[in-house]
């Protein structure tokens, strides 16, 4: 059994949902041992390839745990200032082999870093103290081996003692096994080695480096990748985006080694997506990548694509007009009402073009209002009428038997991605097309 640590991006629920869906689609046997907004501990039968970081839009770092012990010891060491508990942590780190791995590096002086992640608040306020202790301890251990080392610090105003993925990348800390993750969970604390970090430059290249861009309407490549993973889109599958815009979702589908089909009502978008996908294929040397981009209206999708042709439909339809200020509830309701025919058309047609069991991942608007209660679209009832079933992001079976999983997480039907500065956020839904047999069973 291998414990792996995943450090999520800003929206931890979205990151966890993506990770679970990705591992499931890749038929990896896994169980989420524990989770918090700061880190997830996942146990897998075999160590997952560190290259999976490039396939995940919502994971910042992956670590492999070298040792774990009860958080009670960390509590005694740093909250109760117990010297023996501190010494015990030191002994655990020595026994883990993490220092040996760094000593083996070829450079004369090893640069290393320590990042501390805390699931619970009391440790957060003293996390800089914990980080300095671990750093000094490792430095003195390295000198025992006769190895010079430098402990990577950061600006005083940094809130939490955590190296950013860019810092880890720039200082080659993954290659040198030189970033230690000290992850303090509610029950257990894990000390790990970073084995992979998210490369923001690659995602940035696909965002602002592609030939045709459309800033206001386009989704980010990271969110597009998360949606592709929520759709269980793996190698050899066929993914359709019927509102493809400039092709951001399709780019990520091609990188997941799927066949991509794009449709848009706007001829300019068809042209733009075609250019962007050609660029991606050359830039990433995807010799076998297959794609088609067609002009068409979502209401006639099945005539264009044919029935039961695709494994996943992953898409972001229009989200309504851009808003200068947070609207009133009645204005927001008018916006969603106006969008209904488009969304209902999508549900009808997606159900026809999807193979049985195929997934539809779609974004609908999440409009903030002056009253404080957001306005969203009621699409579940219509989707169920048509023959879909909602897929909940989190199921009890994904978590370890003794992991504490709040009921409200399991009851969460959709995922929301809304930054503070946005007036309209995105609500992300996953629906599964039921087979005729399953449908009949639900009607009985
Ligand atoms: C929010 S944008 C999608 C942006 C896309 N995800 C991207 O990253 O570029 C919605 C797209 O839907 C297209 N569209 C609007 N109504 C449509 C319809 N009835 N059928 C097909 N496409 C439509 C628009 O032209 C627009 O490009």
UniProtKB/TrEMBL annotation:
It comes from the Archaea. InterPro entries: RlmKL-like_Mtase, SAM-dependent_MTases_sf. Gene3D superfamilies: Vaccinia Virus protein VP39. Residues 218-277 form the Ribosomal RNA large subunit methyltransferase K/L-like methyltransferase domain. GO terms for molecular function: tRNA (guanine) methyltransferase activity. GO terms for biological process: tRNA methylation. This is Ribosomal RNA large subunit methyltransferase K/L-like methyltransferase domain-containing protein.
């Amino acid at each position: 059994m291998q414990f792996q640590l995943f450090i999520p991006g800003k929206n931890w629920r979205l990151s966890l949902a993506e990770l679970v869906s990705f591992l499931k689609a890749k038929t990896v046997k896994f169980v989420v041992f524990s989770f918090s907004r700061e880190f997830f501990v996942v146990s897998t039968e075999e160590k997952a390839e560190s290259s999976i970081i490039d396939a995940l839009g919502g994971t910042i770092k992956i670590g492999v745990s070298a040792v774990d012990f009860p958080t009670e010891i960390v509590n005694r060491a740093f909250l109760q200032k117990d010297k023996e508990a501190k010494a015990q942590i030191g002994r655990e780190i020595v026994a883990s082999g993490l220092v040996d791995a760094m000593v083996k590096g070829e450079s004369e002086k090893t640069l290393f870093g320590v990042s501390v992640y805390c699931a619970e608040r009391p440790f957060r306020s003293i996390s800089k103290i914990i980080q300095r202790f671990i750093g000094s301890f490792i430095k003195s251990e390295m000198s025992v081996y006769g190895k010079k080392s430098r402990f990577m610090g950061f600006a005083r105003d940094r809130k939490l003692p955590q190296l950013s993925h860019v810092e880890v990348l720039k200082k080659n800390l993954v290659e040198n096994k030189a970033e230690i993750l000290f992850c303090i969970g509610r029950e257990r604390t894990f000390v790990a080695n970073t084995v992979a970090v998210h490369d923001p430059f690659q995602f940035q290249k696909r965002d602002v480096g592609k030939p045709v861009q459309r800033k206001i309407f386009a989704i980010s490549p990271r969110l597009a990748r998360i949606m592709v993973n929520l759709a269980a889109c793996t190698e050899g599958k066929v993914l359709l985006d019927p509102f493809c815009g400039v092709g951001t979702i399709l780019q990520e589908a091609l990188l997941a080694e799927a066949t991509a089909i794009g449709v848009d009502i706007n001829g300019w978008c068809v042209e733009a997506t075609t250019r962007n996908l050609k660029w991606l294929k050359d830039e990433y040397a995807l010799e076998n990548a297959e794609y088609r981009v067609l002009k068409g209206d979502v209401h006639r999708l099945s005539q264009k694509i044919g029935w039961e042709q695709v494994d996943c439909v992953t898409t972001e339809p229009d989200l309504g007009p851009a808003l200068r200020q947070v609207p009133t509830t009645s204005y927001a309701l008018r916006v969603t009402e106006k969008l209904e025919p488009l969304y209902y058309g999508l549900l009808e047609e997606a159900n026809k073009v999807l193979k049985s069991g195929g997934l539809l991942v779609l974004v609908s608007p999440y409009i903030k209002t002056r009253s404080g209660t957001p306005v969203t679209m009621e699409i579940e009832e219509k989707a169920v009428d048509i023959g879909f079933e909602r897929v909940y992001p989190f199921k009890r079976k994904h978590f370890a038997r003794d992991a504490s999983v709040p009921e409200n997480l399991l009851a969460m039907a959709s995922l929301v991605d809304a930054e503070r500065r946005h007036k309209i956020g995105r609500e992300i839904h996953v629906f599964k097309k039921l087979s005729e047999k399953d449908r009949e069973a639900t009607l009985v």
